[in-house]
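Hi R.,

As promised on Friday, here is the backbone we talked about, encoded as structure tokens. Could you run it through your design pipeline when you get a chance and send me back a sequence?
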């Protein structure tokens, strides 16, 4: 009887020891898994974060960068007495949502090919304008067909012909002007980050008369920074910090000038950014002044 009791006691002790060992093993496994999980998780997160924040330099001559299309019109500039001249480009911070449909359509028209009908009459089909509009802003940005809707001043008597679905303009080849006014730019860097591509440019404003050409870092004000009539470029410039260079040799190209001034750190800088849309292509998103 005593032997049976001893056996039962030993058996119970063994069961207790096995149970304790099992609990210890379970606790060790749980602690190990918790420690291992904490160790792995922080390592994974920075890896993912670094991947998303990686900036990749792109070749300016690549098809991807060269295929990007940006708007050419974003404001009016005003002449003396508040009169509006042709649509122009000014460099300031803005988003594609800031451009109303007329300015977007004018940008699409400016890169579309004109077809000459007769004399000085040229036309652009609505189909071609829409095609270039979508190259610039993407299929997600709805194109509004028909005439301009916001009452913009339109240069060169641009007329919409409803029956033919074309924009028509009459341009006189004999027309002359005392001066020309535009902007020039030169890309110097392109980068990709996440689903966006940014292209950086040197830029300058250009004012040219029959004898001289002036280059401005900031938007020049007609009647203040230069005389709208009887221009004396380089003389009528009260705000001297705007003019960075004046050339009298008109045989020197604007490309040569901007290359020279970029090396001398005398240009302004601008960044155009494009975002990938659902079709996998990149379309214009924002413009930002860098310097």
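Update: got your reply. Pasting your designed sequence below so it's all in one thread:
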């Amino acid at each position: 009887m005593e032997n049976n009791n001893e056996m039962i006691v030993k058996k119970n002790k063994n069961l207790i020891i096995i149970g304790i060992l099992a609990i210890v093993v379970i606790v060790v496994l749980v602690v190990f898994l918790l420690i291992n999980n904490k160790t792995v998780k922080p390592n994974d997160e920075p890896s993912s974060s670094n991947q998303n924040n990686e900036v990749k330099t792109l070749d300016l001559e690549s098809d991807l960068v060269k295929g990007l299309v940006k708007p050419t019109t974003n404001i009016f500039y005003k002449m003396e007495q508040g009169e509006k001249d042709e649509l122009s480009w000014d460099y300031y911070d803005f988003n594609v949502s800031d451009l109303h449909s007329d300015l977007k359509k004018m940008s699409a028209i400016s890169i579309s090919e004109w077809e000459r009908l007769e004399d000085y009459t040229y036309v652009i089909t609505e189909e071609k304008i829409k095609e270039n509009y979508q190259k610039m802003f993407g299929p997600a940005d709805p194109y509004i067909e028909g005439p301009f809707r916001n009452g913009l001043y339109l240069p060169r008597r641009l007329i919409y012909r409803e029956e033919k679905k074309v924009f028509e303009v009459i341009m006189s080849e004999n027309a002359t002007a005392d001066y020309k006014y535009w902007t020039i730019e030169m890309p110097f860097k392109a980068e990709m980050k996440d689903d966006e591509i940014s292209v950086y440019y040197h830029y300058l404003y250009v004012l040219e008369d029959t004898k001289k050409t002036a280059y401005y870092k900031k938007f020049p004000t007609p009647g203040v920074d230069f005389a709208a009539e009887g221009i004396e470029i380089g003389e009528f410039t009260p705000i001297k910090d705007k003019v960075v260079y004046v050339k009298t040799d008109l045989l020197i190209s604007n490309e040569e000038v901007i290359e020279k001034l970029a090396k001398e750190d005398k240009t302004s800088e601008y960044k155009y950014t494009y975002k990938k849309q659902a079709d996998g292509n990149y379309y214009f998103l924002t413009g930002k002044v860098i310097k």
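One thing I noticed while checking it: The two ends are 100 Å apart (CA to CA).

Thanks again,
M.
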